[in-house]
Design goal:
about 45% helix; elongated; about 5% strand; Arc Repressor Mutant, subunit A; DNA-binding; homodimer; about 130 residues
Chain lengths: ~130, ~130
DNA sequence: TATTTACCTACCATGTCAATAGGCAGATAA
DNA sequence: TTATCTGCCTATTGACATGGTAGGTAAATA
């Protein structure tokens, strides 16, 4: 299940892409347009900055702006950053401890196959495909 | 993320399939073989019975048994029953209230496409494929 | 009748989700 | 330089889900 965090992140990225070009965009404007609490968006936007997806500038006239062209953002990158991982089962997540049953686990190949399917799907889709 | 509930359910079904044929299989045996708390398995097995996937018989010599041949169980059916839904986002889940933003939601088609991919994947895979 | 089994209800500890609240820091326009 | 506008940081909260545990009842058969 994709949580609000990942979904809101996607909406922020889309909003920034649609109002791209001129100046930095204040978070307040994004929050009002998307009808999401600005305070909650701050948490999400912080992660997007930390992951190098967007850039923020403080002070009067500041705000946020995309770092790349919309077609250079795979959806999977946005979701993985905000959701932590797209892995289906815990033992296949990024920094997970290796499962001791892995060697004779009969379901592992299925999960791995599905994870690859998921990864390919969301990395082929770009931010520009949603606008 | 698939929780332990869905994963344990899969292991129970596989265990029943592997020890199929003769008599009813006591839950105690399954719990010991799979190294899962019998009490916790009771919760899961109850749902499998309720969904018509397995049959339970009380009394001495009782236990559980598959209702169909292993190749007639799609993995997706087992997971959907125990996990509630395989939907990626809340608004596409089974009994969800229709989202008011649905008509102009630019991400909905993507989620729907991914959900179909997921559904197809797990309904093509059968219990017999895992043994 | 005694045993073995399924089945039912309640409880709990931990963690995550989805926010809210209040304030600090930093940069720019005036 | 100062006022203002922005990002940024640290807690705190209530609700809910997860992953169990505990104790007991009902039912069927050897």
């Amino acid at each position: 299940m994709i949580s609000t965090k990942g979904r809101y992140a996607l909406r922020v990225m889309m909003d920034l892409a649609e109002h791209d070009g001129e100046a930095y965009i204040p978070l307040k404007d994004v929050a009002e347009r998307q009808n999401i609490s600005k305070k909650y968006l701050e948490i999400i936007v912080k992660e997007l900055v930390g992951g190098g997806l967007i850039a923020g500038v403080s002070g009067k006239g500041g705000g946020y702006r995309l770092c790349r062209k919309p077609c250079d953002y795979p959806i999977g990158e946005i979701l993985e950053l905000t959701e932590g991982s797209l892995a289906t089962v815990a033992c296949l997540a990024a920094g997970a401890a290796p499962c001791e049953r892995a060697s004779d686990c009969k379901t592992l190949p299925m999960w791995a196959e599905y994870d690859k399917l998921t990864h390919d799907f969301f990395y082929k889709k770009r931010l520009s495909d949603l606008i």
